[in-house]
Design goal:
Distance between the termini: 93 Å
Low-confidence stretches: none
Number of helices: 26
Strand content: 5-15%
Helix content: 40-55%
Strand order of the largest sheet: 7-8-6-9-10-5-11-12-13
Mean pLDDT: 88
Structural class: alpha/beta
Amino acid sequence: MIELWAKRPKDGKIITLKKHTKDLLDNLEKLYNKLNSKLSDKLGSIYEDDFYRFLKFACFYHDLGKVSPSFQEILGNKKYYNEYKKLLSTKIRHNILSLFFINKEKVKEICNSDEALYSILLSAVAFHHWREDEKEYLLGLNEDLIETCKKLLEDSNGRKLEEILKEHFDGFSIEGFDAKDLIAFDKDLAEHIEKGGNLISAGIIPPYTLYFLPERLRMERALKIDLNLWIFLSGFLMRIDHFSSFCEKETEIFEIEKEYPKLDLEVKFSEKFKDSFWQKEVMNAIDDFKNKNIILIAPTGLGKTELAFLWAEGEKFFYTLPLRVATNQIFERACSYFNENIHIDDDPFINGNVGLLHSDADLYIVDKWEALRDTNWDGETPKIIEISKHFSLPVNISTGDQIFPSALKYPGYEKIYATLGYSKLIIDEVQAYDPRACAIIVKMIEDIVSLGGKFLLMTATLPNFVREELKNKGIQFTEVNLYKGEIRECEEQKIICKIEDITRHKIELRKKDIEEDIDEITKLAKKGKRVLIVLNTVKKAISVYEK
């Protein structure tokens, strides 16, 4: 049998294309089983089981372009390269080359002749990786692509590579289809490109970039593209591919979607807060609390985080903050709740339920846990960092810059959106973002609500335009304002509950020397009031202290 390589992990063990494809299909099945029909009401035009089938075919087709001799040479498959380099010597992105070995007629049959679904599936394959120069492939300006098509058409080289793929996948089947029937050299596409055509005109929808946005929007309208279906199909393909490659590289088996831990946070918080448990009062006051979008306005330090954990309990969630220091603190807090059942000898990086995402997360994790126990990383990145990047954990603590830029729809944004589409998003300290960042956050909220996700926005002070923009976009949410002591259904403009309000600190500016207020300060202290005096020099502090 002809051996095609897909990966060469760090231990030197070869991962064949057939094995890599099987790994994707296995991880797809595991992910799908864990989702428990969470996508059923979010796919719009197709049933969940059909979506699962289409994703299987996308996984099978995504890396067929690795049949390229030049790609095999890069991996070190010298035997294959030396034997078949005459068939194709040009270097071309393997994800683009995959398009030339998809049996288009069979795919159209699988898609029930639905042109929109057909284009989505092919486009997901084409752009499961993206490099800046791939815009040239789309526009037909890449000389290597043109030369590749000429070479494929010459001496039936395309047909010969097709036969190599069929031999490699001998005995492989998907959904009752023999893999050999799914593979075919697409002569029409090769001739189209050779004659000056491009991938866009062949029905491959480009990613969201400024280069292609008008063309993409035109194609979406013409084909009546279901954008939710597009995001879930493309996003899950990327996530499954990246995760499978990570496991192959590490030569270990990890869970692509870890189960949410069994907890009862309400009982836990009741024990912690005793009678002063306003979070429970809010939870009980809102019908269907956990399925509502919520804006919470409350002072810092009051326990908003615990309300957020109650709201998200039982579902995968992402908790975002603007600053790394605050993110680290919430990470530790989340670990204290969601990792408490981990045995002391277990590795919290692998067996934990809480992930951390920010630019210095690896440094923080190593420093934190090396101080707590005897570890020896030998310069390796702790696995929890990689697992967090693959969104495999049920609880994800992150700085906003790791999540919110995907609202700008850079190539590959679908991976984040597809995960948020069945998760909950908690946005904390929104008042700390500048207006431009807030605008991006509002756009992300709009998008994930459309996908079926839920949001909880928490802040000490809410910029008015955020509330108004959400209303203008027709997004329904319940507003909890602890300053006013009210819970309001904003779409109906009615107060559904009054709760105990919280008095703000009031500031009075006095234009005089603080030493003139010594008598008032001591009088308040004698009444049992706590008084804080802050001065800006040691000399002044000593003087006031003595007086």
